[in-house]
Amino acid sequence: MDILIVALKRDELTLASFRPKRGGVSFLAAERHPLAGDEQELTRLLEAAARVPGERRVVLALPASQLFMRELELPLTDRAKVRELLPLELKGETALDTDDLSFDALQLATGRFLAVWGRSKEIQEKIELLKGAGLEPEAVTASLYHWEKIAPAAGTVAVTDGDALAAYRDAKPIYLRALRPGSGDTELERTVAALEVAHGVKVERTISFARTSPERGVLAQARPALAEAFADDAHAAHDLAGAYAVAASLADGSLLNLRRGALAYTAGTQKLYRKLRLTAGLAAAVILLVFAESGVRFALAKRDLSSLDKSIQVIYKDVFPGRKKPVDEVAEVRAEIRKLEGAKVSSNTLKFFKELAIAKGDGVTGFYETELDGAEVRLKGEARSFQAANDFKGRAAALVDGAEVTDIKSRPDGSVTFSFRGKLKGVAQ
């Protein structure tokens, strides 16, 4: 996501866009507008900037002169913990109650911390101004606190934009100060001399990005990443070095941010929650579909099992018509098959029953008693008529020797019961 730096001064508005990349940011575009104190004109310019398509991370950069600083000696090294401690540490030492101030901290090369704060009411007013124009900033800072991004990695140097001064030793801050408006070279030289005495250092050179300073040679003195970000455009790098430093700090997560506590940025979190709600909704829909599919599969499987049970019951009744209350049809059929397999005539028994079922035809409605004793076969069954029983005898003669049908008894409905016996063909006695 691109980064938009809104540098707001009393008499000037600068809008600079950067794109994060590996190891830093690259410059996209910028525009500068003079301000005459007309808030409507400022709002119009901000609204025009907000109409640019695409999502951007917005940072409001204020002049360092509108903020306050103090060096503190604290027995901590964690910046987050120092930030929480500052309101208590400075309570009673600021013009306003610390509850009306917004704090952050910056660690110096000496191990001390630079406490930075601003008036919450003034910061809130500027946030609301940008928010109303559609450019709500996620952070509020000043470029002064990020000039280590443009200071050379080695040596003791001072960096200035004409409105503030920062001194670095090997790119670590040792001194930061906002200059009085309209300060010239004399004030700058006096400030450099004072910091040399106070910190016992020798400033090797001063890198100036002030409007009145020459652009030539600036890129050669600054960190190489600055030239790379602006594709060696010395003019753009000279004018927008501060905005670049803020964007680079936001990209790597080291930004000094005064939008904390009651002023904390929540729009990004709300967007994330909305995305998470959508994701959670989709996940819930997928889970419901999975459960629905599982339910359908279970219902189909249950229906198939029920159909299979009914088929087994029908087969069981055909095999054992005399058994009225089966306990486990499948187990009973398997047990009978095992008995048959263990008999002497096991090689022919199942084949015989299959052929017998074919031989009975439609005239014989079923057998309710079957007995095999070696080669002897004895059956009791039901037929539709006397003739049907005799016809079965003729068909069964192909399966058994000495087929006989006896004990034929008539029923009121015309059907008969009969007994059948014979000897299996091809089975030794």
From TrEMBL:
One term under GO cellular component: type II protein secretion system complex
Gene Ontology process terms (BP): protein secretion by the type II secretion system
SUPFAM superfamilies: Actin-like ATPase domain
Entry-linked InterPro entries: ATPase_NBD, T2SS_protein-GspL
Transmembrane segments: none
Gene3D superfamilies: 3.30.420.380
Domain of life, per lineage: Bacteria
NCBIfam families on file: typeII_sec_gspL
Name used for this protein in its record: Type II secretion system protein GspL
Gene: gspL
